[in-house]
Write a structure and sequence with these properties.
The complex is a heterodimer of chains A (about 375) and B (about 550). With about 375 residues, chain A is mainly α. Chain A contains 15 helices and four strands. Chain A has one domain. In chain A, strand 2 and strand 3 form a beta hairpin. With about 550 residues, chain B is mostly helical. Chain B has three domains: about 100 residues, no CATH class; about 90 residues; about 210 residues, no CATH class. In chain B, about 70% of the residues lie in helices and about 5% in strands. Chain B has a three-stranded antiparallel beta sheet with strand order 1-2-3. Chain B has a two-stranded antiparallel ribbon with strand order 4-5. The longest helix of chain B is centred in the middle third of the chain and has 50 residues. Chain B is elongated. Classes of the chains: A mainly alpha (about 375), B mainly alpha (about 550). Chains A and B meet through helix 7, helix 8, helix 12 and helix 14 of A and helix 13, helix 18 and helix 20 of B.
Chain lengths: ~375, ~550
């Protein structure tokens, strides 16, 4: 078996291995390698990797519904945001338990003590469950209404974008009691670990890598299963599948809710690493960008989404510091080139190239 | 050559005659006015001076005379206010303007300067002077001066001269000033001890309904001294009457703001309706065409300011064709470079146009800076008019509504009744058939895309008068515009108009009660619910795809 064949056949194995290796390498290099050593990873870069991994989870969630069920959502920021806000609620609980000082926005609201609504999120496990449940509920209601009336294609995309916009405007209201335009910050500890500690941050990044690996395997399994085949059927010819007796709206609804939950998990992991949550996380801009990551990486591959998110965000962090005014133009140019010239994205194109050259040699 | 000679002779004869008669008339007018002025000012100086009467006479003089006399009255009052008035030893009034002393009647410099101290009015007279000055200012042709004067009169309502104000009310064109004066008169009437006066005042107040007049009446009702049942009943009826009017005015205001919001929605959605509705292309860069239209207007405005300041106010009309053309050209370039490769892949178009919009926003930021651009509105779009009490219509909104209607009609006519429109409809409905019948489909696509982009540019022109103009202004409109098209039904211009009217009105009815965000969310929910019943939108065009 040649190297190329191995790469194609063993994609998932390679990806999971790489992710686990990164997860293990980060704490080890930071702890045991000297600061001057080029293989030493600073806290900054580890934190960066952690954030990028969260975006990769988010992109993978979108690729699951877009690449396999043909539903382009421009509203995945909503679910990312729900996860992020729920984590924010939990973290605020935790820091209040420590300091007994109300956060600024609560003082602004004129609240004397910690409101009951926030106390639901006192325990981490409950918060995670709440985040997933809430996402399921919102995605479920929205998906039920839209899929049942057969809103699809670009109409669905536009409506999800409007949903994102509406939620962002709502979160910007200061009187809502969710932090308003400043959002929530001043987090101190997560499940007893101090967020300021280096070890906590490294742990979070490593956990993100492992979660990505697990979620990838899960989604990969679903895609390969008969349900995944039905999803692909919906994508390629929904009407035909419906005539064959499949309840396509239910297939889409399940895929949609699952994808939303994965996005929420990304949000849960993201917030403790950046240390702040504000309404910009649900801006329509970010939601379109997620789709752009997937398109650049290559949709319908899951790995492509991960690669796209990693590449774009890595470049973004690097270039935003070096040449902030150039970055949007580069992103725009790359997006244009890929959408026009390389509709399978980078990873899809690579796979195509590999299998073609392989087939040619076989002849 | 007889007649010309005759004419010349006539001219020679008549010319001096006319000149002479004009001279005589003006001289006699001059002497008459001097006499009047003397009468008016008598009693200002000397023993037993009656300055209060003089002030009353001054106003009456201004009321019954021409502009020239009004200027004179104003001069005297200014002199009184500023303490420039001096009475000389022979009881003549002089005005000391710093350099020289003038005769108060003729306003000519006097040779014998008086060294007497200036005339100091008492407190009572001072207040009377203030209201007299306001009353005289009501004759001004400047609307803002009159409004200020009316406010002043409202403040010192107890001192006003009822007959003068009633006289002025008859000729006052501005309804705001009218209602202020009526209110002031009524306040004075309510304080009167005569019941008949009070009743008349209550009636007068109810005739000019406003929040202020309502407070006035409810204060009267709450007054413990008010015991007369007839008065009570009258004021209760009046309050009910005012409430009805206020409600009506409120409804009209909301309807109007809904209409103006709808016109903005219609303007922004119209181009999208052509591009998305007819061609099926998701153009996320649509908002940036609006921005380009607005910035083209800005450039036109700047150029007109420096090169043709005389015609500055017309810049908005100059900008209309320019913005349309600029945006149409940009649109056609975009179609040629990007969109035409993606006609079969709508979701990719969405991403590609997003990238274009990102690049456009950043380019505009680099060129013009990211802060808001300041516009000087044309004079005829400033301000507004009070249709009736509590219902004010601003000119820029009316302008937007009219322009939206015009542009909509023009687009509708182009699509429905021209050959080009026929070709667009043919290409979008049955593309392959159209092509085999010889329709140049690619060119039609390009021109329709240019038309849509140009319409967005026109929206940008109008928005310069209403919204703030900055590089990211487009993004805030594009989502709403998409909603309008989705609700109206792709491909139906009538649907776009109806849905923008509906969304505009719904939005403005919810907004004052629950805030703008709730309004947006509610509109979104309404759209999703309507789409449940009509997945293709309100108005569906029968097409085969």
């Amino acid at each position: 078996m040649s190297f190329k064949q191995t790469l194609i056949k063993r994609q998932e194995f390679i990806l999971v291995t790489v992710l686990l290796l990164i997860a293990a390498y980060m704490p080890l290099s930071n702890r045991f390698l000297d600061v001057v050593n080029p293989f030493h990873m600073s806290l900054f870069s580890i934190n960066l990797i952690g954030q990028i991994i969260c975006f990769a989870i988010l992109a993978m969630a979108l690729d699951f519904v877009w690449g396999f069920a043909g539903i382009l959502s421009l509203g995945h920021g909503v679910f990312f945001g729900i996860g992020g806000y729920v984590m924010g609620f939990y973290l605020i609980n935790a820091s209040f338990a420590e300091t007994k000082v109300l956060p600024d926005f609560m003082l602004y609201m004129g609240w004397k003590d910690f409101p009951l609504f926030f106390q639901i999120f006192k325990y981490l496990s409950v918060s995670i469950a709440m985040a997933v449940l809430l996402t399921f509920a919102i995605a479920g209601i929205f998906g039920f209404a839209t899929f049942r009336s057969r809103i699809n294609g670009v109409y669905f995309s536009i409506i999800t974008q409007a949903l994102t916009y509406a939620l962002m405007l709502m979160l910007f209201i200061n009187d809502l009691g969710l932090g308003g335009n400043n959002g929530m910050t001043g987090f101190r500890s997560l499940a007893g670990y101090k967020l300021a500690d280096i070890s906590t941050q490294i742990g979070l990044a490593s956990v993100s890598c492992i979660v990505l690996a697990i979620l990838y395997l899960l989604l990969r399994y679903i895609v390969k299963s008969s349900f995944g085949q039905a999803m692909i059927g919906v994508r390629d010819d929904e009407a035909r599948l419906r005539f064959l007796g499949f309840r396509t709206d239910r297939i889409k609804l399940f895929a949609w809710c699952l994808s939303a939950a994965v996005a929420a998990i990304a949000g849960l992991l993201y917030v403790p690493q950046v240390g702040i949550i504000n309404p910009n996380i649900v801006s329509p801009m970010l939601s379109v960008e997620i789709a752009v990551w997937v398109a650049i990486g290559g949709r319908g591959t899951l790995i492509g989404a991960i690669i796209g998110a990693t590449l774009v965000n890595g470049l973004k962090f690097w270039l935003s510091a070096k040449a902030p005014s150039v970055w949007p133009f580069i992103l725009a140019a790359v997006t244009l080139l890929i959408t026009i010239g390389l509709s399978n994205g980078l990873w899809g194109g690579t796979l195509q190239l590999l299998s073609r050259s392989h087939a040619r040699r076989g002849v | 050559m007889k007649r010309p000679t005759m004419l010349r002779v006539l001219a020679w004869l008549m010319g001096p005659l006319i000149l002479f008669s004009i001279f005589c008339m003006s001289a006699s007018a001059q002497s008459v006015s001097i006499e009047h002025r003397t009468v008016v000012l008598s009693g200002l100086c000397g023993d037993g001076a009656t300055p209060g009467l003089v002030l009353t006479r001054l106003v009456t003089h201004a009321l019954s005379n021409n502009e020239k006399e009004q200027v004179w009255v104003r001069r005297i009052i200014t002199a009184l206010k500023e303490g420039q008035l001096i009475c000389n030893d022979s009881d003549q009034a002089l005005i000391n303007d710093g350099r020289s002393q003038l005769n108060a009647i003729t306003l000519e410099a006097v040779l014998q300067k008086s060294s007497n101290p200036p005339y100091v009015p008492s407190m009572v007279i001072m207040r009377k002077v203030a209201i007299t000055s306001a009353e005289v200012n009501l004759f001004s042709s400047d609307q803002s001066v009159r409004r200020e004067a009316a406010e002043q009169i409202d403040k010192f309502y107890s001192l006003l001269d009822a007959s003068v104000i009633t006289q002025i009310l008859k000729n006052e064109p501005d309804s705001e000033v009218r209602s202020m004066l009526t209110l002031a008169l009524a306040k004075r009437g309510l304080k009167s001890s005569d019941k008949k006066d009070q009743l008349a005042a209550i009636l007068a107040v109810s005739q000019s309904p406003s929040q202020a007049s309502r407070t006035l009446l409810s204060n009267l009702l709450g007054d413990k001294n008010l015991t007369d049942p007839e008065l009570k009943l009258a004021s209760q009826t009046a309050i009910r009457h005012i409430d009805q009017w206020l409600l009506f005015a409120n409804i009209c205001s909301i309807l109007f703001s809904g209409l103006s919001y709808a016109s903005i929605l219609l303007l922004t959605a119209l181009g999208l309706s052509v591009i998305f509705g007819l061609m099926g292309v998701i153009n996320l860069a649509h908002g940036e065409f609006i921005t380009i239209g607005a910035y083209s207007t800005f450039i036109v405005e700047q150029l007109m300011k420096s090169y043709a300041p005389a015609y500055f106010d017309a810049y908005i009309f100059v900008a209309i064709p320019i913005a349309f053309c600029v945006c149409a050209i940009f649109g056609m370039v975009l179609e040629y470079c990007v969109i035409r490769f993606l006609y079969r892949r709508p979701l990719e178009t969405l991403l590609a146009t997003w990238a274009v919009s990102l690049a456009m926003i950043k380019s505009i930021q680099l060129l013009f800076g990211s802060q808001n651009v300041e516009f000087i509105n044309p004079a005829f779009l400033n301000g507004g008019v009070q249709v009736f009490a509590g219902f004010v219509v601003t000119y820029n909104r009316v302008f937007a509504i009219i322009l939206a209607l015009l542009i909509f009609t023009a687009t509708l006519l182009i699509i429905r009744h021209t050959r080009f429109g026929l070709l667009i409809r043919a290409t979008t409905q049955l593309r392959d058939t159209a092509r085999s019948l010889g329709v140049p489909a690619e060119r039609i696509d390009r021109i329709s895309f240019g038309l849509g982009a140009g319409l967005a540019g026109l929206a940008g022109v109008v928005l310069t008068q209403i919204a703030s103009v900055n590089p990211s202004m487009g993004t805030s409109f594009v989502i709403d515009a998409f909603m309008v098209v989705v609700l109206g039904g792709a491909g139906s211009l009538i649907g776009t108009a109806v849905s923008s009217l509906a969304l505009g009105e719904i939005n403005q009815w919810i907004e004052p009660l629950y805030g703008s965000v709730t309004a947006k969310v509610a509109v979104l929910i309404i759209i999703v619910l309507i789409i449940q019943r009509r997945p293709q939108g309100l108005f569906t065009s029968k097409t085969r795809t």
